[in-house]
Design the sequence.
């Protein structure tokens, strides 16, 4: 099989924003499931323990590879391969909810209960990407059904071939109308893979405090399917460089505030303020802290190219 190689990441998808402009404390997220390990442990283990291999590589032991595939916007199919061989593996039972936002549940003796849900579809809500896409993978034994946002992770990491990847696109699964993704996940129980053991430490608040960073992509309004407001894709990393939150192509609310509130494992929301015009700085607020994208001590922001621009910033997240 032929894979497009991607950077390792498995993000806790959390795109809901807290209402209103007031910053509020959120309940701390304690690690649950996966023998007591939170999802950050899985992310760190794939990156630190598997490189230069990837979680889905046949050579990696004590793991299953989950392949999720659609054709022509339907015909959902799922494979699970738990042996160290290069093949699709076992075909899982047929989908009965192969449509937008239909969440299909499966079970496997090696990895337990899991589900797959396609959260976007071509031709719906202005979406121009063909077929069913943006699958969300969840496993009961990985932090109690936390979301692994497979396509967002893959899209954001294209071009990195250093190994340590959790998920990948499947290139040319069967035809030009077929979309496919794969993720490698560790066995449950005493034989779990990726170097995880009882000494694995997860911060009880769901993040490592210190200097957090984030990668940001800003989309121009009236471009890439956005209307009167700007859009953003953002990935936040904690002080240990573990991803702790993400949003993908989310539009700033068209309510006059010009502000998008981003939720994550952190106790406060990250406020993203973008009134424009295109060349104006984006301003950010976290708790009592504020900064802008033109502050060279905090951010590095590039120029627009094909309707979007990318940057990286940092802030204190104690």
Sequence:
């Amino acid at each position: 099989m032929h894979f497009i190689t991607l950077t390792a990441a498995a993000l806790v998808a959390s795109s809901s924003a807290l209402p209103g402009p007031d910053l509020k404390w959120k309940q701390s997220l304690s690690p649950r499931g996966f023998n007591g390990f939170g999802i950050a442990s899985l992310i760190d283990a794939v990156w630190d323990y598997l490189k230069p291999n990837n979680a889905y590589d046949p050579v990696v032991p004590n793991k299953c590879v989950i392949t999720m595939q659609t054709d022509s916007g339907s015909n959902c199919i799922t494979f699970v391969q738990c042996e160290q061989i290069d093949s699709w593996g076992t075909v899982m039972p047929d989908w009965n909810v192969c449509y937008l936002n239909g969440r299909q549940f499966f079970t496997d003796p090696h990895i337990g209960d899991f589900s797959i849900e396609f959260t976007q579809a071509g031709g719906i809500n202005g979406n121009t990407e063909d077929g069913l896409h943006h699958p969300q993978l969840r496993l009961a034994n990985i932090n109690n059904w936390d979301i692994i946002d497979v396509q967002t992770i893959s899209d954001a990491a294209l071009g990195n071939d250093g190994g340590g990847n959790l998920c990948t696109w499947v290139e040319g699964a069967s035809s030009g109308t077929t979309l496919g993704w794969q993720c490698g996940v560790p066995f449950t129980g005493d034989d779990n893979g990726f170097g995880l053991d009882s000494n694995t430490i997860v911060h009880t608040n769901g993040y490592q405090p210190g200097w957090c960073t984030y990668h940001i992509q800003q989309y121009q309004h009236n471009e890439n399917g956005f209307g009167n407001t700007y859009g953003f894709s953002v990935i936040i990393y904690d002080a240990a460089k573990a991803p702790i939150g993400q949003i993908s192509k989310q539009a700033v609310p068209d309510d006059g505030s010009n502000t998008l509130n981003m939720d994550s494992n952190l106790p406060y929301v990250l406020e993203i303020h973008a009134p424009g015009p295109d060349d104006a700085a984006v301003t950010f607020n976290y708790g009592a802290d504020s900064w802008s994208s033109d502050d060279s001590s905090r951010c590095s922001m590039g120029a627009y190219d094909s309707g979007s621009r990318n940057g990286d910033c940092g802030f204190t997240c104690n």
Remarks:
- The first helix runs from residue 39 to 50.
- The two ends are 44 Å apart (CA to CA).
- Residues 1-36, 197-204 have pLDDT under 50 and may be disordered.
- The CA atoms of residues 223 and 306 lie 9 Å apart.
